[in-house]
Amino acid sequence: MMAALEPSDPRHIGRYRLLRRLGEGGMGLVYLGASPAGRAVAVKVVRPELAGDPRFRARFRAEAEAARKVSGAYTSPVVDADPTGPVPWLATAYVNGLSLKETVERYGPMPEPALRTLGAGLGEALIAIHEAGLLHRDLKPGNILLARDGPRVIDFGISKAADGTALTAGGLLGSPGYMSPEQIRGTRLTAATDVFAFGAVLAYAATGRPPYGRDTVPSIIHRTLHEPPDLDGVPESLLKMVAACLSTDPEHRPPTRLLPPLLAAQPVTPGWLPGGLGDELQQREDTLVMDLRTVTRARTRRRLLIGGAAVAGLAVMGGGTAAALDRGDRRLRPPRFLWQATTGGDGLAPHVTPRAIVTEDRTAACRGFDAATGRQLWSADYEDADVLPARIYALSKSGGSPAARGTLVTSGPLVACDPHSHATLWSYQPPPTLSSLLIEVASADLLVLTDTQTTMIAIDPRTGRQVWLRQWPDSGPASLSASGVVGRTLIAGRIAPNYDFKMFGLDIATGRDRWIQANVRNAVAADPANVFFANPARTTLDALSPDTGFRLWTTDLPGAGDPNRDDQLSLEITVAGGIVYTGSPTLYALDLRNGRHLWTYTPATPGGQDRTVLVSGDHVYILDNPQLIALDARTGKRRWSVNTPAAGTAPLIVAGGLICTGVSGATGAGLYGWNPETGKLIWNHPFHAPDPNTSWAFDTQATTLTALHSTTLLAFHLP
Questions:
Q1: What pLDDT, in 10s, does the model give residues 669-685?
Q2: How many C-beta atoms lie closer than 10 Å to residue 10's C-beta?
């Protein structure tokens, strides 16, 4: 967790400017730093007691030079070091990730596919480390970061240097529970010692507990030397490999080069991470620039003389991410107006894609506009449509008069189109016996169609191939729906003619039941968290497992019922950073793991249910008309509040590092953007929008912000 620099912290180490504290390890403090070229690095500064030891310096210099040779895809490479300076330090590429230890503590044991991805990545990392002539000697959950594009091993080669002088409790060198028997005994070490730690790490990730327990150090050491590991809970298909890695005889452990092929993992995809971690890391990525702008406030005289702060790119190494860093003291800049166009229909939502902006109105009529110029490229009337960043998925009309969105009429084929050219990429023709189809779920991994009564079809969005078709008995008027995909499970529900309600967890690959629950109503999938939510009674919220359908926890939320829904929960839920946010008018922040109430916010203004909530980074922003309020996401403590022109419900969005909204009405109509850290107004784009009942709709991607009001579409460039 990042923290501000303390008064005693240095502001520069070598050529790197220090921005924040990242944490503290066995060797010393770790800082987030930026190179002169704008590269993000983790700078590790050696503790004074180690810095004064000549033997440590000699080992540190040798190991740092060797570690620079490690360049594996699953390691955090060393980019710079000064082992001879007054304070030795080392800089590695910054990884946007969470440690395996914290991940398992927060989200529980990892499923088998994620275990295989983890193990294959760790194996590749160990191969790279060993080929550089190093042993890690301290591979453990705390030294493994999980990023969106795979795991990363950190501190390789450094633990060996530190071990020579820095002893843990009892004089042991390493981490009990992950140390090999030969490491405990102090005998000769080979690559097999890291393979032992590899097996212990996999066992921990699979079960949520160390294989030799959490007892006292002497007890853990005794079990490591004399008792078999506890592998209960390790998947059967991985059990023999993990047991072999944990053999007390180094000769009986598999060689490092065989670890990746033994895991037979699928290619890493962004969805490999457990629970809501992927969402949390994406939010970290989205807010990193904002956070860095807050702590980099100095200008050099040279920058002032050339007319402003220089701008450089900050490469956020790890997790396959990159962001832009405003270096120096340049303030947040407002979005720059690009163009204005007329959509021709009462707009429902805009969608920004890499080359086009697509609007959709209430009759599913879509129009495509060139993102750079605003020129209309195409228009089409659909029965139903969903726009994703790379494709448009739409059910074509089969003829006849236009129908309102959701009306049960015969549909044509399902098509996937390019958002810019509108060229058809594939077409799927549903079985001729089916009609009145609607798109229930559209994601990058699965499309789901239903006829709203008896039939559900799953389509591969990449190819248009039918994955499966599921039919329920036709016993009279019924209602069939799907609320979303969580992990491997599609959450679906059906109300039979006798009002018997059942919730189904369907395997996304086969459509078969993973579980069935009776009387589970009003469910909503909370992707990417590995849970879904239901509202069994008024203000009661249940969290359920998508894998089993079992209830994980339940809680009552007094005052959170929506007055527009007979005081029942609206199930408008946001999950971010391990916290569940829900409720209206009272907003609740709940611990995702157990439903524990962390804090609440109750609006003070009349009609407080008309308010908007946005979670971004470590802040929760609430537009509690007319105030915009920033709260600490973890504690609910108010950071700042400002008055706004908003008199009714308005959306909130993060764009260009600003917290933005749109205001309709006779007074103050237009677009606004505030500094997320201070609440200072940075941007206002006036716009004539006198009708207070017509709301703005927004979307943003990369450097484009689009705003739709009625039939007018606006586009802005984000700095």
A1: 899 999 999 999 999 99
A2: 13
Which residues, including other chains, have CB under 8 Å from residue 244's CB and lie 6 or more apart?
Answer: 199, 252, 253, 254
* Helix 192-207 with 236-245: angle, nearest 10 deg: 150
Would you mind telling me the total number of residues written for the chain in this entry? 719
Per-residue model confidence (pLDDT) at position 54: 82
Give the model confidence (pLDDT) of 327-357 as tens digits: 332 468 899 999 999 987 666 789 999 899 9
408's tokens: 């049960």
| Average pLDDT for the chain | 80
**Radius of gyration (Cα) for the chain, nearest Å?**
28
The DSSP H or E segment spanning 240 is helix 236-245
Beta bridge partners, 366, equal: 360, 380
Local structure of residue 2 (DSSP, 8 states): -
The gap between the terminal CA atoms of the chain, to the nearest Å, is 27
Which residues, at least 6 apart from 61, have a Cβ–Cβ distance to it below 8 Å?
Answer: 83, 84
Please give the torsion angle defined by the CA atoms of residues 176, 182, 183 and 188, in that order, rounded to the nearest 10 degrees: 180
pLDDT score at 293:
43
- What order of strands is seen across the sheet that includes strand 150-153? 98-99, 144-147, 150-153
DSSP state for residue 497 in the 8-state scheme: T
State residue 507's pLDDT score.
94
CB atoms within 10 A of CB 452: 16
Residue 92 DSSP symbol: E
Say whether 48 sits in a helix, a strand or coil. helix
Q: Can you tell me the mean pLDDT for 118-126?
A: 92
Tokens for 80?
């710079």
Q: What is the pLDDT of residues 63-86, one digit of tens each?
A: 777 777 777 778 888 888 888 877
DSSP codes, 552-621: EEEEE-TT--BGGGTTB-----EEETTEEEE-SSSEEEEETTT--EEEEE---STTTTSEEEEEETTEEE
- Print burial letters for 268-300: b (CB count within 10 Å at least 16), e (below 16): beeebbbbbbbbbbbbbbebbbbbbbbebeeee
Check if the beta carbon of residue 41 is closer than 8 Å to that of residue 13. no
Q: Is 325 helix (H, G, I), strand (E, B) or coil?
A: strand
Question: Which letter does DSSP use for residue 36 in this model?
Answer: T
Q: What is the pLDDT of residue 521?
A: 61
Residues 6+ apart with CB under 8 A from 573: 524, 526, 533, 580, 581, 582
What average pLDDT does this structure show over 487-502?
78
